[in-house]
Structures are given as structure tokens and as C-alpha cells.
Amino acid sequence: MKKRKAALPLLLLVTLFCRPKPKNRQKDALFAIGTDFDGKFDEKKNQVIFALLRKPKNGFTEQKRKTSLFPFMTRTLLLALLLCLSNYGVSLAQGTFRWNSSTGNDWQIGANWFLESGTDDGENGYPDGSDEALFNGLSPTPGGPLTNIPAWDGNFTINGFTGTVQIGANFECNGTVTLTTGTLQVNSGANFLAGTLTINGGTLTLNSGSHELGDFTLSSGTFNGAGTIGFTKISVTGGTFNGGTGATYTRNYTVADADQSDTYTLISINGAGATFNAGTNTTYNLLVRARRTSGTSSYSVTATAIHLVSGTFSAGTSKFVFRANVDKNSTSGNVTATARIKGNLTFYNVEIGGTQE
């Protein structure tokens, strides 16, 4: 049975606007929920337990003065609020759902999941909203490619699971996708999006489709690319990056109305065991762009398109396009963009250029 939610906001509203005027400034005070609140979180009951705090004669301490919500709340209203919190619960953590079905493959069927901890954000029995979806050592291999996957803001984790999770529908996780064991396979026609992608082991395999890797770090394991791929950064510190065959990688790094020194790297290979195989007939479009939206101020933007610090880089038959573009939005003032290439790198098909937009 789902929890009722109406009484808590109503009680808070009554507390705010209907509390009696205090006759004595030595009444109890309720403090804000936060990192410095005077109370504790009871994980077993999933509740916040507050301590009753009394205002000292010489005024609140500096910390209490900063976090006080209702400086002169009466004991009756405080106890009523505590009772309400006890009955309805206060969630401080998103739910973590573990995959729990060897025959199902529909994400939005609650029977396929087990709530390991926290509170179900959408109260619907499956991970969405800020919930985490987890495959661990207790998770069976799904009965087929996962379908009916909602876009959500939580995380997706494979850790301890040793089988293969197939993605058969569009996958949009705006949080962090973490792969430590097992295999995550995105089937042909399914699009894959991650806010942040971290591979600490295992294998991620993409197929034809439109994919977004976000801020991607590969420290161990294997990445197999395919399709059309966008990204924020790619950092290979270990493991093997395989660019794929006929894939296209694109990063348009733009800085507007500000100077930018060489502190940003689009692709970095930095690790004794790191291997970057660019692929076969794969294209990498790496653009550094300086943009001025208004005015006539001068700006200079410099970024590194690719940097081999340590490890192995193989260009294969892939094409690398390096461009530095400027958008001045005025004929006055000077705007420059610089795309750098660093390290002992060998390219067989490269294009270098720049334009004023």
C-alpha cells in the first residue's frame, strides 16, 4: 500500500502560519534538516529522529542561529511534527533496485525488481526518477533484452554480476553508469545515453544507433564503440578502447565570452596499461570553438584535442579532424581558438583547419 503524503505538507503549513505567539523565549526550537541538524537518521525505521533543543539564556550559538527554522515553536507543535514524521517517514536516500528476474525483460514491471534500500522515488516498484538500478552477484540474467526503459536521473550499476545485460530499447540514464563486471550490450537500433560513464571492468558494447557517453572514464575492462557517438570527455587510464568500424565520434568544445587556457582535454590516454585503438574507417571530429555573444572584448581559447601521456595509441585507418573555429559576432576585437595535439602520435588520415563563423 502506498504512503499517504498530504498530511505532512498540511501540518507544516499550519505550523508556519498558525503557531501561537510565544510568551516565554525559553521555548523549544526545531532545527532544519541538513548536514548540521541536531538529530539522527534511523536507517531501520527510515525516519528522522529529532532531539528537543532548548534556547540558552544568552541566545543561540552561532551554529544554531544559522540553522534555526522556528526559533520559538511551542512544545505541542514540535511533538505533533515529530509524530507526523514518525507516521509518514522522511526519505534522505533514493531507492536502490536490484534486478531480480530470470524470465522477465520489461523494466517497468515491479516484479522484475527487488528494492534493496532507500525509498522508491516513483512508488511504482521499478527504478525511475532518482532511483538506482543495480545488477549485482544476486541478479539473474534477464529473460531477454531490456525493454520499456524510462529516462531517469538516477544511476545504473553493474557490479558483481557476471552475465550479459542486453539493452533492447532506448536507454537514457542522466546520472552515472558504472560497469565493473559483466557485459552491457546495447543492441542495434537502441540509443544509449549516460550523464557520466565509468568502466572499471567488464565490457560495454555499442551497436548502430545514436549514443552519448557524457564524461567517460575507462580504467579497466573494454569499450567497443559503434554508431554515432557524442561525448564530453574521454579519459583512458587503463583497459582497452576500441573505436569500432565506421563509427563517428564528435565533440564540439565551445567557450563563450571568456578566456580559456589549456586546461581542458577532449581525449586523454594516460596509463601504462591503457590502449586506444581508434578503429577502422572511423571518424573523430574534435572541435575547439571560441564564441563571443556580444560586445567587442578580445578572447583567447586554447584546449587540447588529444593527448597521449602514456600507454598505446593506434590510429588504424581512422580519420581525425581537428578544427579551431571562432565566432566573433562583431568585426571589432580579437577572438582566437587553438586546438592542440600532444604526445607521440601517428596519424594516417588527418584534417586540420579552422574557420570564422
Key attributes of the depicted protein:
mainly beta; 6-stranded parallel beta sheet; globular; 357 residues; 9% helix; single chain; 16-stranded mixed beta sheet; disordered N terminus
Total of helices: 3
- Total number of β-strand segments? 27
Mean pLDDT reading: 82
Strand content: 35-45%
Q: Which secondary-structure class do the elements indicate? A: mainly beta
Low-confidence stretches: 1-92
Globally, the shape reads: globular
N-to-C terminal Cα separation, in Å?
Answer: 59 Å
Helix proportion range: under 10%
N-to-C order of helices and strands? HEEEEHEHEEEEEEEEEEEEEEEEEEEEEE
Task: Summarize the structure in words.
By secondary structure, this protein is mainly β. It is 9% helix and 42% strand. The protein has helices at 7-18, 62-67, 75-88, and strands at 28-31, 39-42, 47-50, 53-54, 68-70, 96-99, 113-117, 132-135, 156-158, 164-167, 171-179, 183-186, 192-199, 203-205, 210-212, 215-218, 222-224, 228-230, 233-236, 240-242, 248-256, 265-277, 283-291, 299-314, 319-327, 335-342, 350-353. The strands form four sheets. The chain has a 16-stranded mixed β-sheet that branches. A six-stranded parallel β-sheet has the order 15-18-21-23-25-27, with no helix packed on it. Helix 1 (7-18) packs antiparallel against helix 3 (75-88). The chain starts with 6 loop residues before the first helix and ends with a strand.
